[in-house]
């Protein structure tokens, strides 16, 4: 089945689920508008609110739990570490604390039933009041649908969705992602500022079936045309397939130097997969090429292992971690040529979401208020400048109140912040549509493995 058909079926399923929960259900409007009924006036806005959680603010002294589901260290280290930090801060639910944490399988694409069951199991806890999934891999929306059916009092938070955008929005009370719309332009802009004349995009078909990732790629290609860089499309194996993480990493390790030899040192390389990042960073440094930032930027995303940096004694101290990584990168010759975000998106977004839902349950914050979201994240990212905006549906032009996009300035090792938060993204990029089928076809024709 081609991607277009898959997307049609996904959207149709989301619409059916939305209608199911809209009929006769009154929900709490956590965006700050008045409470609405699924059949009341308000059109699409009222229907959208029909998937919001039915919860009451906490009573004074009431005990409650927050569930966090993440990937494992090998696939999503930042999110995993954040969940462990949340337990450190608020206690383990099994030991009288607040946080219950579980992980989904590394091969989540092939083991969706396990992923779904682990997320749904959070709702078996009678004290559970919110479930946060980061990254929200395939199966998350199905799991949220099941939770909503039996526990409408639970707030559902979808972070960094890897499913159809409509499904993610309609089955979660809040969806938050990296701003892959503005980043599509700003990453290419940053690459040029760092001396790049070419931009190489490394991915595989599964990622290009994700609307926001495909949209970012399309924006990157268009930005390259406008800013005078050559866009290069490269394929690499999907680590969730039989080749696994080791095989996918080995492929990158073996091919990065030939790619640099072919395209030149002034090529900026970007990959969409966390597992690909470590060997890519190591190869870029060795070959003298350029790396702007990761798909989900963080000083600990790939850098420590790529440069043999021990940061165990600095856990949670992001300024110390970034300084240590910076020293290693500059020593290896990557100064001015390699960057990241000074603070991890996956880490700070997970912890920020924990604080946000606490504020909402205490009736002190609004779940979809961008200022509240950034305030919670900023607690863990001192000195960083965050940018936030609502996602706009590419087909309808409708602003999605419960879907927030976030971005942080690029930090270049040996140079400092680039000031990307001051770069205005041309309006045409903010309104670009993406033909996922065309992107998939282009990716299949790209150099390298198909990743299937």
Instruction: Tally the helices.
Output: 17
Q: Please tell me what the overall shape is.
A: globular
The description of the largest β-sheet is: 7 strands, mixed
Structural class label:
alpha/beta
Describe this structure in words.
Helix 3 runs parallel beside helix 14 and helix 10 packs parallel to helix 11. The strands form 4 sheets. Strands 4-3-5-6-7-13-12 form a 7-stranded mixed beta sheet, sandwiched between helices. It has a 4-stranded parallel beta sheet with strand order 10-8-9-16. It has 452 residues and is an alpha/beta fold. Strand 5, helix 5 and strand 6 form a beta-alpha-beta unit.
Structural topology:
Elements: H1 3-22, E1 26-27, E2 36-37, H2 44-49, E3 65-70, H3 73-90, E4 99-103, H4 112-121, E5 128-136, H5 140-150, E6 155-161, H6 165-170, E7 174-178, H7 182-193, E8 198-203, H8 205-208, H9 211-227, E9 230-235, H10 244-263, E10 267-271, H11 274-287, H12 303-306, H13 318-331, E11 339-340, H14 345-361, H15 370-378, E12 386-392, E13 399-408, E14 411-412, E15 416-417, H16 427-430, H17 436-444, E16 447-448
Parallel strand pairs: 3-4, 3-5, 5-6, 6-7, 7-13, 8-9, 8-10, 9-16
Antiparallel strand pairs: 1-2, 11-14, 12-13, 14-15
Helix pairs in contact: 3-14, 4-5, 7-9, 10-11, 14-15
């Amino acid at each position: 089945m081609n991607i277009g058909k898959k997307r049609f079926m996904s959207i149709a399923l989301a619409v059916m689920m939305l209608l199911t929960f809209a009929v006769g259900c009154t929900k709490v409007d956590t965006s700050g508008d008045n409470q609405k009924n699924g059949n009341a006036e308000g059109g699409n806005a009222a229907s959208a609110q029909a998937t919001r959680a039915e919860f009451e603010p906490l009573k004074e002294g009431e005990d409650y739990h927050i569930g966090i589901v993440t990937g494992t260290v090998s696939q999503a280290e930042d999110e995993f570490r954040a969940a462990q930090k949340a337990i450190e801060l608020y206690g383990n639910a099994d030991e009288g604390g607040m946080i219950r944490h579980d992980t989904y399988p590394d091969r989540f694409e092939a083991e969706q039933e396990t992923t779904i069951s682990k997320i749904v199991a959070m709702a078996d806890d009678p004290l559970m009041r919110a479930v946060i999934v980061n990254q929200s891999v395939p199966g998350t929306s199905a799991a949220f649908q099941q939770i909503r059916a039996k526990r409408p009092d639970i707030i559902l938070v979808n972070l960094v969705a890897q499913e159809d955008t409509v499904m993610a929005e309609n089955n979660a009370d809040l969806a938050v992602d990296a701003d892959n719309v503005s980043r599509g332009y700003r990453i290419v802009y940053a690459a040029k500022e760092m001396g790049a004349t070419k931009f190489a995009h490394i991915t595989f078909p599964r990622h290009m079936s994700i609307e926001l990732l495909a949209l970012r790629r399309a924006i990157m290609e268009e930005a390259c045309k406008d800013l005078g860089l050559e866009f290069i499309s490269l394929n690499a194996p999907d680590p969730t397939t039989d080749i696994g993480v080791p095989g996918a990493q080995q492929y990158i390790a073996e091919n990065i130097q030939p790619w640099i030899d072919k395209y030149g040192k002034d090529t900026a390389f970007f990959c969409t997969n966390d597992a690909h990042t470590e060997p890519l960073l190591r190869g870029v440094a060795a070959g003298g090429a350029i790396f702007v930032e990761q798909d989900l930027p963080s000083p600990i995303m790939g850098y420590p292992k790529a440069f043999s940096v021990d940061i165990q004694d600095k856990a949670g101290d992001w300024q110390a971690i970034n300084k240590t990584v910076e020293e290693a990168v500059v020593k290896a010759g990557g100064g001015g040529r390699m960057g990241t975000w000074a603070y991890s998106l996956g880490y700070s977004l997970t912890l920020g979401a924990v604080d946000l839902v606490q504020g909402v349950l205490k009736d002190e914050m609004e779940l979809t208020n961008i200022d509240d979201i950034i305030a919670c994240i900023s607690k863990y990212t001192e000195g960083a400048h965050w940018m936030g905006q609502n996602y706009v549906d590419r087909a309808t032009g409708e602003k999605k109140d419960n879907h927030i996009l976030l971005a942080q300035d690029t930090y270049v090792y040996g140079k400092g912040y680039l000031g990307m938060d001051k770069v205005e993204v041309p309006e045409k990029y903010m309104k670009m549509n993406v033909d996922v089928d065309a992107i998939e076809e282009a990716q299949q024709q790209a150099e390298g493995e198909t990743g299937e």
